[in-house]
Amino acid sequence: IKSQWENLMGVGNLLNSVQILLNISGRTPIISKTEEVSDEITQLLRKAKAYYFGINQVKDKTRGVYLYGKAAKLGNGEAAFMLGKAYYEGVGVSHSWEEAKKYFSDAVTHGNPDAMYQLAYMYHYGIGVELNRMKALELYTNAADLGDGKAMKMLGRTYQSGELGIIDSNRSSQ
Predict the structure, then answer these.
(1) Residue 137 in contact with residue 166, Cβ under 8 Å?
(2) How confident is the model at residue 29 (pLDDT cuts 50, 70, 90)?
């Protein structure tokens, strides 16, 4: 069935991000909702950024945050990070450490290094959360492993100073 489908659709179309399922009994191609949700998230993010940052339209942070919230509910880590940032800074919504932590944590589960850094910073300094240096170190390390420059810099500084309870001059220069 797969080779027949490849011949019909072309290998390039088969390998795109659309998940294609075959109903074996009727051999009817069924396209999953993945592409539709992905398109919806892309559109929501585009609109949210446009409103939040005032790109090609009047800046409306409240509307931008609302749209980030819709995209976050659909499971987008970038949107969850931006929502956490909005609550952290009190921009477009009322300031709330609890909501900031919630959305940063959600973004962390989606592998967002910016959220890892921000949540680590909160734990590092006890901002809106109970001070937890080991959790901060874990999150900084994860963000740095994903290439986050701020996390790398913070790890270097903390390894050199021992601020998080570990002094390691070899790691501080890496």
Answers:
(1) yes
(2) very low
Four-point Cα dihedral 69, 54, 90, 67, nearest 10: -10
Q: Which two tokens stand for residue 67?
A: 């749209």
In eight-state DSSP terms, residue 127 is S
Contact 108, 143 (CB under 8 A): no
Write the CA distances from 108 to 111, 118, 149, 160, 166, integer angstroms: 5, 10, 17, 26, 24
What span, in angstroms and rounded, lies between the C-alpha atoms of 32 and 72? Answer: 20
The span from the CA of 90 to the CA of 87, in Å, is 5
| Packing angle of the helix pair 113-125, 77-89 (nearest 10 deg) | 30
Model-level pTM?
0.75
The pLDDT value recorded for residue 161 is 81
Residue 45, SS3 per DSSP:
helix
Cα 82 from Cα 92, distance rounded (Å): 11
Q: Say which residue, 8 or 83, is predicted with more confidence.
A: 83
